[in-house]
Amino acid sequence: MHNDYAGRLYLMMYVNCDSVIITFFTEQQRFFHHMFLLQVFVSRLNGKIVSSVLCSRSSQLPKASAASGIGCWDWNLNGDKSIYHALFPRSWTVYDGEPDPELRIVSHQISPFIPHNYKESSLPVSVFTFTLSNQGDTPTDVTLVFTWAVAGEIS
């Protein structure tokens, strides 16, 4: 995911999963302009259910629970067990026991880079991969929802 010279957001994504939900935000929610969100839903056979955005609650979100929109999502992550690593052109985030204490999620991201080739290296693309490890004894179903905001008008 990248921005071009005019600030427009571009995303190229190949997805091998059951479903993807794409959400476009309204004009009033511009503060999510350059951000993507990942929501995780965990359901264990013992009845335990966990849902959270994989991001600490934004200070720009209202404190009160919203009736609809992104403010009503589950912002339960405190970030104590999450680590972001960046080593261009790669980055990765490890969620170790957060939001579910028996689940480890690793998100890898790479932006193509060709030395001495600015034109092709500036293409607005990224590849995301996710590795999930159930470290508990209870079987689990995990669903990831990847959403992002786009800049400008939707035509």
From TrEMBL:
Residues 39-149 form the Glycosyl-hydrolase family 116 N-terminal domain. Pfam families: Glyco_hydr_116N. GO terms for molecular function: beta-glucosidase activity. Signal peptide: none annotated. It comes from the Eukaryota. Coiled coil: none annotated. This is Non-lysosomal glucosylceramidase-like isoform X2. The gene is LOC116202677.
